[in-house]
Design a protein that fits this description.
Layout lengths: L18 H4 L2 H7 L5 E6 L5 H14 L7 E5 L2 H14 L8 E4 H12 L10 E2 L2 H15 L11 H14 L3 H8 L7 H17 L2 E2 L3 H12 L1 H10 L2 E4 L7 H11 L4 E6 L14 H4 L1 H4 L4 E5 L1 E2 L4 H11 L11 E2 L9 E5 L2 H19 L6 E5 L6 H10 L3 E3 L9 H14 L4 H8 L7 H12 L2 H4 L8 H4 L9 H15 L8 H20 L3 H15 L5 H12 L17 E5 H4 L4 E6 L10 H23 L2 E10 L1 E2 L7 E2 L4 H4 L7 E4 L5
Parallel strand pairs: 1-7, 1-8, 2-3, 2-6, 4-5, 6-7, 9-10, 11-16, 11-19, 12-14, 12-15, 13-14, 15-16
Antiparallel strand pairs: 17-18
């Protein structure tokens, strides 16, 4: 019978940190929590990073060797910044500390042990482009018919497999629940996954998801390795625990073991990424999984004025699934309540935002980079972008490309441009290259054949595109879609040779050919579909497609300072972004826009998602409003003039109507000369 003996670490002789002086009471309790498991609920703006950083320093000051500490984060930048802060606090050399993302730590473990999984030393890690190329090779050699039905492209396949891996869900279930339009080809998708996995081993390559999923497999199948790493990592710390998925949670459980030392820091009220696999139940059920865990709440907010926090607390209180807490302000009252602003229309909403920004700049001397416009979906920014452009207000978009510069918008515009300008080679080439089986060479040949037709030479609109296009020779794989494109072009022009209204053109393109293309090509197909529906609604104000296309070109050609290599703080520009992208950021003034039911919360969450989806939408609203430090504006249009079925009255978001009336100041906005 072996005897158990505990080796105690010798603490540093003279810690440099006065923890009680540098931390508030709640932070201090979390930082100095005794060994075991601990859940730290750190509210928005409460110093989460500071708490985690000081926890690492505390362990080092108490003699824990750096190599015995594992710090797991969601970005390499976060890990780097925390370790730099720790190094500035302690005298211990922290270079031996294991800190990084889940995948980077997985990579380190696999580098020593990949042979046990059938890989060779020196395996390559594929980026997204490499993964796409290898997947296309596998598809080509598989013998699977990907032309008889709309089959997902390589990038979409990668996302399907990724979601299954990260949620620990069987692939058929993922297809049924998240990709029902691929159920007809589910057998091919399953077969390709096995072929793709075999090909990766054959070529000694791993994709990004393998770095974690294969590490979990390695630890589950090799008890000696699991015990080795459990012994090494005496203390495990996890940042942003509310964003963990099932695979990450499993990785943490394996390394910690039932008796290990684990500290997780997060905020259940900021869990907003279920669409990419995050599972809020990991943090909500932490105490059930770890019954001896201590829970610490950090509720003092250093970011926002009390008026903003009162609204945020009231909003999130409506959620039933949460760890109850109340943010308390460290700042003094500003005397200014958040503004609730109902506008006549979406264009009036954009005009109000632009005018108020100029007032904040001129009257209060506020820098533009202290102002953000936040929204639920990227298309909500369309009219705001137009208004800011027209008024000469610089802005930067961090939720994606400028609306009119996105690939799917430019694709649809290419159809329209060619329909009204039969000499537009650029638009023709873009349009036909969307068709499966048509590459550059085929597109050039088709353009040459088109130029020989009378319709291409005549200034009059052709009565029928299909009469000219259908007889042209195209690859067999492309024939069905090519024919449909020809018929769509006919529909866009009409029997009398006059172009249809822009909105009708867009709907013909999307419903005729482009919706199927988006499903197979883009992982965020539904978001892009919403963008195009909004584009169609917006185009209703135009009767002439040339005028509409001219407006698109002018708006997409303006320099918006939207350069990814520049950081927002490096230039004076208003930030436009989604609530998802805004998490972790802050501004002095925030405009939360399109706060109408069906927009925020999203219509799909209301109609199909049930309480779970609505609670996540409310958490997203909470994240959005807690980005504001000084001033918060909540806006929505009373009438949506761009609705597909005509003008409709918009109901204010339930997240607004649920609030006590005394938490907001209602602004009555009138048009003036």
């Amino acid at each position: 019978m072996p005897r158990n003996y505990t080796l105690h670490h010798a603490p540093d002789s003279a810690p440099r940190i006065d923890y009680k002086a540098e931390l508030n009471e709640q932070q201090y309790a979390a930082v100095t929590s005794p060994p075991g498991q601990a859940l730290v609920i750190a509210g928005a703006g409460s110093g989460k990073t500071r708490t985690l950083t000081y926890r690492v320093a505390w362990l080092l000051d108490n003699g824990i060797p750096p190599e015995s500490i594992l710090l797991l984060t969601f970005t390499n930048k976060a890990a780097r910044e925390m370790l730099e802060r720790v190094q500035a606090l302690v005298t211990t050399d922290t270079t031996r500390l294991w800190g990084g993302t889940f995948h980077s730590i997985g990579n380190r473990i696999l580098r020593y042990n990949a042979e046990r999984l059938g890989y060779r030393k020196g395996f390559s890690i594929m980026d997204r482009e490499d993964q796409k190329d290898l997947m296309e090779t596998v598809i080509g050699a598989s013998g699977i018919d990907v032309t008889s039905y709309k089959f997902p492209k390589a990038e979409v396949l990668g996302d399907i497999y990724s979601l299954a891996d990260n949620t620990l869900t069987k692939l058929p279930e993922i297809i049924t629940s998240r990709y029902p339009y691929f159920e007809q080809v589910a057998e091919g998708i399953l077969k390709l996954r096995k072929l793709y996995q075999d090909k990766k081993r054959e070529t000694n390559c791993m994709d990004f998801d393998d770095l974690l999923s294969l590490t979990v497999q390695l630890l589950e199948e090799n008890e000696d390795l699991l015990e080795r790493y459990r012994r090494q990592f005496e203390f495990i710390l996890v940042d942003e625990y509310q964003d963990t998925n099932s695979l990450q949670c499993r990785f943490i459980e394996l390394l910690t073991g039932p008796q290990g030392n684990l500290t997780v820091v997060g905020d259940d009220a900021q869990s907003i990424y279920s669409w990419r696999g995050a599972d809020v139940s990991n943090i909500l059920n932490f105490e059930e999984h770890w019954p001896r865990a201590r829970t610490h709440k950090i509720e003092i907010n250093y970011r926002s004025v009390p008026e903003v926090l009162n609204l945020a607390n009231a909003a999130i209180a409506m959620n039933r699934g949460q760890v109850p807490k109340t943010l308390r302000p460290a700042r003094e009252s500003s005397g200014t309540l958040p503004a609730l602003v109902a506008l006549d229309s979406s264009s009036a909403q954009a005009a109000f935002i632009a005018q108020r920004i100029l007032e904040l700049q001129d009257e209060q001397g506020l820098d533009l980079n202290d102002i953000a416009i936040l929204y639920r979906a990227h298309f909500h920014s369309m009219e705001v972008q137009m208004e800011l452009t027209q008024r000469g207000i610089p802005f930067q978009i961090t939720s994606g490309l400028r609306f009119f510069e996105q690939a799917h918008v430019k694709d649809v515009a290419a159809f329209m441009k060619f329909a009204v300008n039969r000499q537009d080679e650029v638009s023709f080439m873009r349009m036909v290259r969307l068709i499966p089986g048509i590459g550059n060479a085929s597109a050039v040949k088709l353009w040459t054949d088109w130029l020989k037709s009378d319709a291409a030479k005549s200034e009059a609109m052709p009565a029928s595109f299909s009469e000219i296009l259908l007889p042209l020779k195209v690859p067999k794989k492309a024939k069905e879609t090519w024919d449909q494109v020809a018929y769509v072009l006919d529909e866009m022009i009409g029997a009398e040779g006059r172009p249809a209204a822009p909105a009708l053109m867009i709907r013909s393109i999307v419903e005729g050919v482009y919706e199927d293309y988006m499903k197979t090509k883009f992982k965020n197909y539904e978001q892009r579909q919403q963008d195009l529906e909004q584009l169609s609604n917006f185009s209703d104000r135009f009767t002439d497609p040339l005028e509409f296309l001219s407006q698109l070109s002018l708006l997409s050609g303006v320099d918006t300072d939207n350069k990814p290599d520049q950081q927002p703080q490096d230039r004076d520009a208003v930030t436009l972004t989604t609530g998802h992208q805004a998490k972790g950021l802050e501004w002095k003034v925030v405009f939360a826009i399109w706060l109408a039911d069906g927009m925020f919360p999203h219509k799909r969450a209301i109609d199909e998602g049930g309480d779970t989806a609505l609670e996540e939408e409310r958490r997203l609203f909470y994240v959005t409003v807690t980005r504001a430090k000084d001033e918060l504006y909540l806006t929505y249009p009373v009438i949506n003039h761009q609705a597909r079925d005509g003008d409709i009255m918009m109901r204010p978001s339930r997240f607004i109507t649920d609030l006590p009336k005394d938490l907001v100041e209602v602004w009555n906005v009138k048009s003036g000369w």
